[in-house]
Write a structure and sequence with these properties.
With 379 residues, the protein is of the alpha+beta class. The chain contains nine helices and 19 strands. It has a six-stranded mixed beta sheet, sandwiched between helices. Helix 2 runs parallel beside helix 4 (152-164). The protein starts with 19 loop residues before the first strand and ends in an 8-residue tail after the last strand. Residues 1-11 have low confidence and may be disordered.
């Protein structure tokens, strides 16, 4: 179900233009619409992530910004300059690809210096700039090595240094960490974020990894089918999704299918769930889904809880290291189940195990309600 994207952005002075303005951009490949009427402001110095599954349009949008694939309709402005039809070489950006795209026959020094040499910078200045960048990305002493002698993480650092060599106004990252193993990826994303902050360079990163986006971005642009679903800070996107699609794509989420039985109340199986004012848009008889994050299911201090308190059986328990994820039986003929995340201490204190009975509460303020007639509602 199409919704107007919710945007959370940095404050701007009256009349101040965004660093990058994307206006009504669409992209067609024959009869296929890859982007449809995308409008977005990106502000100076922020790191923004385009997030979504394969085929959602995020890379197409990045390539339109870079001029590698011109948009079919719409305009793009950088610092007030219309760059919609400007060749890539004349746009002010550095780019890092998923495949690194290093020259295998050139040393690290020559890879980094490639753009500087093309700009006919003096040899001594090139050498000084390369040394500065190698120190910046933590690869001092590697200038004479070739890409084949480097690890994946080191190659990505070289690609990043090459993109920064010409001091571009904007950095474009096309799934830069996806080819790395989990531990290296986690370490490098922290380093990249710190580097971006220290340089203050406006950065756009494409990723399908929600954890990457949540940990690195100042704002996230969630995309689906060539459209923007929602724009906001990581916390806003996670805690206040504006559609079931966003709620399902970002983090784990429970979807309980039910029907509005009266104002502020939804029937799910045998449960009568009191929901917050966000559900006032629905009428009695409307089919909806009630959403709650697994970590928001409450089990402690329930003595004073009067609403949304239920007894459930534990179907299964999955150990996930720092916490356990329990699957709870909602009951009734619907076969609905609820997942809840519990700390190791809570598991021990409550002696929770498969088959045990457990009293839980669904805090009203943590519940969200969406219509169930959309195609983006999980079954």
């Amino acid at each position: 179900m199409a919704r107007k994207p919710k945007s959370t952005s940095k404050s701007k002075s009256p009349g101040e233009r965004a660093f990058l303005e994307i206006r009504d951009v669409s992209k067609m490949f024959g009869d296929f619409t890859a982007l449809q009427d995308v409008t977005l402001d990106i502000h100076d110095g922020e790191l923004i992530c385009f997030l979504g599954p394969s085929g959602c349009g995020k890379t197409t949008l990045l390539r339109a910004i870079a001029g590698l694939d011109y948009q079919t309709t719409g305009r793009i402005y950088q610092k007030g300059r219309d760059i919609s039809d400007v060749p890539p070489a004349n746009r002010d950006f550095g780019i890092v690809f998923q495949s690194y795209a290093l020259f295998p026959n050139l040393s690290v020094e020559k890879n980094i210096a490639y753009g500087l040499v093309n700009r006919k910078m003096g040899r001594s200045k090139v050498k000084a700039r390369v040394e500065e960048l190698l120190q910046l990305v933590g690869l001092e002493g590697s200038e004479d090595k070739y890409p084949a002698a480097l690890s994946g993480g080191q190659q990505q650092r070289v690609a990043l240094a090459r993109a920064l060599a010409t001091s571009p106004g904007m950095l474009l990252l096309d799934e830069p960490l996806s080819a790395l193993d989990a531990k290296v990826r986690e370490h490098l994303r922290h380093e990249m974020k710190e580097l971006q902050r220290s340089l203050g360079i406006t950065t756009i990163m494409v990723t399908h990894d929600q954890e990457e986006a949540l940990s690195m971005a100042d704002r996230i642009v969630v995309m689906s089918d060539g459209r923007i679903e929602q724009v906001g800070t990581p916390m806003d996107i996670y805690r206040n999704p504006t559609s079931a699609y966003v709620a399902d794509f970002i983090g784990a989420m429970n979807f309980l299918h039910g029907k509005v039985v009266r104002k502020g109340h939804v029937k799910v199986g045998k449960m009568d769930i009191a929901v917050n004012g966000a559900a006032d848009q629905f009428k009695t008889g409307d089919e909806v889904v009630v959403c709650i994050r697994p970590e928001d299911v409450a089990v402690r201090d329930l003595a004073q809880v009067k609403i949304n308190r239920y007894a459930m059986a534990i179907r299964d328990v999955e150990f996930l290291g720092s916490f356990c994820r329990a699957t709870l039986d909602v009951g009734g003929k619907t076969g609905e189940e609820l997942t809840a995340d519990f700390s190791i201490n809570l598991m021990r204190d409550f002696k929770l195990e498969r088959g045990a009975k457990l009293n839980i509460a669904l805090p009203k303020e943590q519940l969200q309600v969406f219509p169930s007639n959309g195609t983006d509602i999980p079954a």
